[in-house]
Design brief:
Layout: H1 7-25, E1 42-45, E2 48-52, H2 65-78, H3 93-105, E3 110-114, H4 117-128, E4 134-138, H5 143-152, E5 155-159, H6 164-173, E6 179-184, H7 196-205, E7 209-213, H8 228-232, E8 239-244, E9 254-258, H9 260-269, H10 271-274, H11 281-296, H12 298-317, E10 329-335, H13 337-349, E11 352-353, E12 356-357, E13 367-372, H14 379-388
Parallel strand pairs: 2-11, 4-5, 4-6, 6-7, 7-8
Antiparallel strand pairs: 1-2, 3-9, 8-9, 10-13, 12-13
Helix pairs in contact: 2-11, 3-11, 4-5, 12-14
Length: 393
């Protein structure tokens, strides 16, 4: 049968195919990996059980029976979807309860739920900053923060990763109507911690708004699981805290916690909140149940920290480069994308699922295996990973 594509369409598709081939040539083309099971400490792929070191299910709550039952009960009561934005009729008492619980966890007056952590970052930055303003962003911030900076129209100043001196100089040299500093607290590719006490001090010294992304810290850091502020013993006054429900809390969705005035402003001005269907009841119910577990079982956080320390020490003892990680995210930086893919294949052959992370997710020349630990892993699991990692060249 003859093709019905026009010459213009054929040319356009050909260009896309050429770009995909170029990604292939640089070992940068992605594909979807679909396990046949849920995100537990082990997953089944192509009928084979693999030790799972690639999930953000840090506390093992995504498959916890109590969290699953929280999701099921909420869906039974309120349905599979709220089918509307919050400002229409897409809310339930569970949504309000979860916002109250998250605000308390973060030491803030109020919280606001978003459809995803990505949308929460977009929503905050685009609502609070505009062309007359400046945003100061850590060089290794997540793509959602980068996109929020771009979409805001504000002048964006990128400071060197974790470099308070560089940030201070940029703040002093950049006048604007409003200035926002934005940083992850646990960086997703290196597992290192932002110097939060210094960021708070700089924000207050320069009358700037500090926005922190707690995606990989909520539920994991601090004696109460409150995140990096709790970990450092800092109060949250004047800060805006962004977070997600999709990692340690084992659910889906995002949130912002802040002063009541800020939350009311976002409710009225944040497009990703206003124009998006609210979280389904199951996600809200799961997150509420997860918060109960976070409060009741601090030993999960303790075990996770111990396992991460064990993995870092084991990699260092084997001669691998030192890591700046202080958390449950432990990278093994290998350099070229091809080397990271080869390591991924070797690990999988040994029964370990750990994905290669390549540019543009990380800078050129820093492709890596990123090991994500869960509180439900064991020391034997860590030993198995260490045995499967090839010795450094």
């Amino acid at each position: 049968m003859a093709s019905t594509e026009s010459p213009v369409t054929s040319a356009w598709l050909g260009e896309l195919g050429s770009e995909l081939a170029a990604l292939d040539a640089r070992a940068l083309r992605r594909t979807v990996l679909t396990p046949e099971t849920g995100q537990g400490e082990r997953v089944t792929i192509d009928g084979r059980s693999l030790l799972n070191l690639t999930s953000n299910n840090y506390l093992g709550l995504a498959h916890d029976p109590r969290v699953i039952e929280g999701a099921v009960a909420a869906a039974r009561t309120y349905g599979a979807s709220v089918s509307a934005s919050r400002l229409l009729c897409g809310s339930t008492p569970l949504h309000e309860e979860l916002e109250e619980r998250l605000a308390a966890l973060k030491g803030q007056e109020r919280a606001l739920l978003y459809g995803a952590g990505y949308l929460a970052n977009l929503g905050v930055l685009t609502a609070l900053a505009g062309p007359e303003d400046a945003i100061f962003s850590d060089a290794l911030n997540h793509a959602s923060i980068i996109d929020g900076c771009r979409l805001s129209g504000a002048t964006t100043k990128v400071y060197r990763h974790l470099d308070l001196d560089d940030l201070g100089e940029l703040l002093a040299a950049t006048p604007s109507r409003r200035r926002l500093i934005v940083s992850e607290t646990v960086f997703s590719m290196d597992g290192d911690l932002a110097p939060l006490p210094g960021l708070v001090a700089l924000a207050r010294r320069h009358d700037a708004i500090l926005v922190i992304d707690e995606a990989h810290a909520t539920g994991v850091l601090g004696a109460d699981g409150g995140g990096a502020l709790s970990h450092f013993g800092l109060d949250s006054e004047g800060l805006i805290v962004v977070g997600t429900l999709s990692k340690a809390l084992g659910s889906a969705g995002g949130f912002v916690a802040a002063n009541a005035t800020v939350i009311d402003y976002l409710l009225n001005r944040s497009r990703p909140f206003i124009f998006n269907t609210a979280l389904p009841p199951a996600s809200v119910g799961a997150a509420l149940a997860a918060l109960d577990v976070v409060a009741a079982e601090p030993e999960r956080r303790e075990n996770l920290a111990d396992l991460a320390a064990c993995l870092r020490e084991g990699l260092a003892a084997a001669g691998h480069p030192a890591t700046t990680s202080e958390t449950q995210i432990v990278p093994l930086v290998l350099g070229p994308a091809e080397a990271a893919l080869a390591a991924e294949r070797a690990l999988r052959e040994a029964g370990v699922l750990a994905k290669a992370i390549r540019p543009p997710t990380v800078p050129e020349g820093t492709a890596r295996i990123r090991f994500n630990l869960m509180a439900t892993h064991t020391v034997d699991d860590v030993d198995r990973v260490l045995a499967a990692v090839a010795p450094p060249v």
